[in-house]
Amino acid sequence: MKGLVVYDTTHGNTKAVAEALSEVLRESGIDVDTVHVKDAGKPNPKEYGFLVLGSPTRFGTMSFAVKRFLGKVKADAWADRSFAAFDTENPENLEKNQGSAGEKIAAQLAERGLRQAMPVLKALVLDMKGPLVEGELERVKEYGRDLAGKFKE
To answer: DSSP string covering 15-33, please?
Structure first.
């Protein structure tokens, strides 16, 4: 099985999360392509058994580039494949429940008939620019190990 990890990043934090997830998936024996959303083009669903998509949370939603990418994920081609969604956001946003890029990504992928493998991963960053909160990368890797198990089921 091969998967596709697509991310957008503003200050490098979401990229770090995508790379950590990809690393753990590979260590678990799963082949993945990891690409920045602007380099993703129109992915061929015949090449991939699952999709992992992430974005920074900006103003309570995903980046415009991720929204545009979602337009390329066609329901008839991607239906019944597994997915996971993630975002980066600051703890204040999470506490105030002001919207989450990951939750909105998950909702749109589910609407297209993809199956959500795990709850949305919300990686916490300090302030707007980061860095990631201490210990977040280890939490991301643990999520990745659990996700690998789900993708192998």
So the answer is: HHHHHHHHHHHHHTT-EEE
Taking a C-beta distance cutoff of 8 angstroms, is the pair 51, 4 a contact? yes
pLDDT at 93: 74
On whether the pTM is more than 0.85, the answer is yes
Cα distance between residue 70 and residue 72, in whole Å: 5
* Amino acid occupying residue 147: L
What pLDDT digit, counting tens, does each position of 35-61 carry? 999 999 999 999 999 999 999 998 899
Amino acid (1-letter code) at residue 66 = V
> Phi, psi at residue 32, to the nearest 5°?
-135, 145
CB 90, CB 125: distance < 8 Å: yes
Alpha-carbon distance values, 97 to 75, 91, 143, 153 (Å):
29, 10, 21, 32
Residue the block writes with tokens 């002001």: 98
